[in-house]
Amino acid sequence: RWQLKDPAGTPWAPNYFDQDQLYNLKQDPYESKNLATNPEYQAQLEKMQNYLKEYLRSVPGPYPGLVDEE
Question: What are the angstrom distances between the C-alpha of 41 and each of 8, 20, 23, 29, 38?
Fold first, then answer.
């Protein structure tokens, strides 16, 4: 049996509930160090967020909070 009691303290997914997640998969293949809040990676995070927004505009469906409503 498995039970998730404390999501913030889980060693296997410490950033699971973070809204933004950015990992260097070559250096951190297990995604244990979230770089999204690191100022050094802010430009990369914004670049990837913009790619996501562009993609979401091309597919059907509403995405409140991610893509502006037209």
Answer: 23, 12, 10, 17, 6
